[in-house]
C-alpha cells in the first residue's frame, strides 16, 4: 500500500514533558487511521506535527511524499484540517461559510451544496453558524475542511461534547468521507469510536504509541476471556463454577458473571438449564487492550 503519511522517530518535548516520544508509523492511502489515547497522551501534538503546524524537535514526517516541515505550502491544498467551531464567521450562514472557504481555493459554487448534502446540513444552509447545534457546527466544520477536495483529512476529536445520537450521525459522515477515497486521520479518546470507524488504530499514552493495528486484531491478540452474565436468580455462582469451560465466576448486582474462553459449551449448558434470563455476552474490547498495555483502566 502507498503511504500517505510517514513519521520516523518523531519527538516533541515541552520542558521535561515528552509530549510525543519517538513515534514511527505509516498511514496508508485511503486508510481510516485512528489515534486513540486519554487526555494528554500526545495525540494533538502528533497530528499538528503531521499537518506541519508544529515543528518536531527531532525525527521526520512526510505527507503525500513530501516533507511537512519547514511549512510546505504546496501541501495546503491537499490536506483538510477540521477547524474548531469558534473559527466560524458568526454572522455568516452555513452556505456562506462554505462558499467563503471554497472561493479561497477557486471551487465552483455547486461544491458548496454537495458538501452541505454530504454532512446532512442541506436544510440548515441558511442558518447562521452561531445558531447551529453542537453537532451541526461540528459537521459544518468538517464540511469546511473538505470543501477544497483534499486527499487527506485530519479530524481532531470531532465528536467531543456531542450527545450519543449526534455522534452516530457524525460517524456516518466520517464513513462517507472515507468511502470517497480520502485518507482520514482521526484522533479520539472514545474507544468505541475508534473500534467502529478505524481500519487501524495507534493506541497512545505518555507520548508513545503502545500498540498499532486493526482494532479487531488488537482485541483478538489479547486472548481475553468472554464474559457471560445471567440473572443470579437463574444461576447461582456455585452452580456456574461447575459448568464445562468456565474459568472463573464472579457476581455483581443481581448477576452471575462467568469468564470463559469457550463460550459455546457454557451457553449450551445455560440453555439446557433454562438459565438464560438476563443473558449478556461481552467480548473483550479496546479498553481491555489498553488495560493490558498500561496496567490501568482507560479513563478518557
Ligand atoms: N504548547 C504546549 N506547551 C506545553 N505543553 C504542552 C503544549 N502542548 C501540549 N503540551 C503537553 O504535552 C502533552 C500532550 O498534549 P496533547 O494535547 O498532545 O495531548 P492529547 O492526547 O491531544 O490530549 P487531549 O485529548 O486532552 O487533547 C500534555 O502533557 C500537554 O500538557
From TrEMBL:
<dbReference type="InterPro" id="IPR017871">
    <property type="entry name" value="ABC_transporter-like_CS"/>
</dbReference>
<keyword id="KW-0547">Nucleotide-binding</keyword>
<keyword id="KW-1003">Cell membrane</keyword>
<keyword id="KW-0067">ATP-binding</keyword>
<dbReference type="InterPro" id="IPR050763">
    <property type="entry name" value="ABC_transporter_ATP-binding"/>
</dbReference>
<keyword id="KW-1278">Translocase</keyword>
<dbReference type="GO" id="GO:0005524">
    <property type="term" value="F:ATP binding"/>
</dbReference>
<feature type="domain" description="ABC transporter">
    <location>
        <begin position="5"/>
        <end position="231"/>
    </location>
</feature>
<keyword id="KW-0472">Membrane</keyword>
<dbReference type="GO" id="GO:0016887">
    <property type="term" value="F:ATP hydrolysis activity"/>
</dbReference>
<keyword id="KW-0046">Antibiotic resistance</keyword>
<dbReference type="GO" id="GO:0046677">
    <property type="term" value="P:response to antibiotic"/>
</dbReference>
<dbReference type="GO" id="GO:0005886">
    <property type="term" value="C:plasma membrane"/>
</dbReference>
<comment type="similarity">
    <text>Belongs to the ABC transporter superfamily.</text>
</comment>
<dbReference type="InterPro" id="IPR003593">
    <property type="entry name" value="AAA+_ATPase"/>
</dbReference>
<dbReference type="InterPro" id="IPR027417">
    <property type="entry name" value="P-loop_NTPase"/>
</dbReference>
<protein>
    <submittedName>
        <fullName>ABC transporter related</fullName>
    </submittedName>
</protein>
<keyword id="KW-0813">Transport</keyword>
<dbReference type="Pfam" id="PF00005">
    <property type="entry name" value="ABC_tran"/>
</dbReference>
<dbReference type="InterPro" id="IPR003439">
    <property type="entry name" value="ABC_transporter-like_ATP-bd"/>
</dbReference>
Amino acid at each position: 500500500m502507498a503511504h500517505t503519511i510517514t513519521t520516523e522517530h518523531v519527538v516533541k518535548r515541552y520542558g521535561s514533558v515528552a509530549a510525543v516520544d519517538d513515534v514511527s508509523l505509516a498511514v496508508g492511502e485511503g486508510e481510516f487511521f485512528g489515534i486513540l489515547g486519554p487526555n494528554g497522551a500526545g495525540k494533538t501534538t502528533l497530528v499538528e506535527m503531521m499537518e506541519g503546524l508544529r515543528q518536531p524537535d527531532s525525527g521526520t514526517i512526510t505527507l503525500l511524499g513530501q516533507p511537512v516541515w519547514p511549512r510546505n505550502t504546496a501541501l495546503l491544498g491537499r490536506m483538510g484540517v477540521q477547524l474548531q467551531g469558534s473559527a466560524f464567521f458568526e454572522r455568516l450562514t452555513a452556505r456562506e461559510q462554505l462558499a467563503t472557504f471554497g472561493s479561497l481555493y477557486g471551487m465552483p459554487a455547486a461544491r458548496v451544496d454537495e458538501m452541505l448534502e454530504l454532512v446532512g446540513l442541506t436544510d440548515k444552509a441558511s442558518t447562521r453558524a452561531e445558531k447551529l447545534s453542537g453537532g451541526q457546527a461540528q459537521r459544518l466544520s468538517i464540511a469546511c475542511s473538505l470543501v477544497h477536495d483534499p486527499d487527506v483529512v485530519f479530524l481532531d476529536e470531532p465528536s467531543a461534547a456531542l450527545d450519543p445520537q449526534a455522534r452516530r450521525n457524525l460517524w456516518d459522515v466520517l464513513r462517507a468521507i472515507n468511502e470517497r477515497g480520502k485518507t482520514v486521520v482521526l484522533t479520539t479518546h472514545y474507544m468505541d469510536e475508534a473500534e467502529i470507524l478505524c481500519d487501524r488504530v495507534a493506541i497512545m499514552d505518555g507520548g508513545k504509541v503502545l500498540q498499532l493495528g486493526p482494532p479487531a486484531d488488537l482485541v483478538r491478540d489479547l486472548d481475553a476471556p468472554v464474559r457471560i452474565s445471567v440473572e443470579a436468580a437463574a444461576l447461582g455462582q456455585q452452580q456456574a463454577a461447575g459448568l464445562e469451560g468456565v474459568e472463573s465466576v464472579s457476581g455483581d448486582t443481581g448477576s452471575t458473571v462467568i469468564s470463559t474462553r469457550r463460550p459455546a459449551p457454557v451457553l449450551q449448558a445455560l440453555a439446557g438449564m433454562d438459565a438464560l434470563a438476563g443473558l449478556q455476552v461481552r467480548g473483550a474490547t479496546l479498553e481491555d487492550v489498553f488495560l493490558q498495555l498500561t496496567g490501568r483502566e482507560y479513563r478518557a
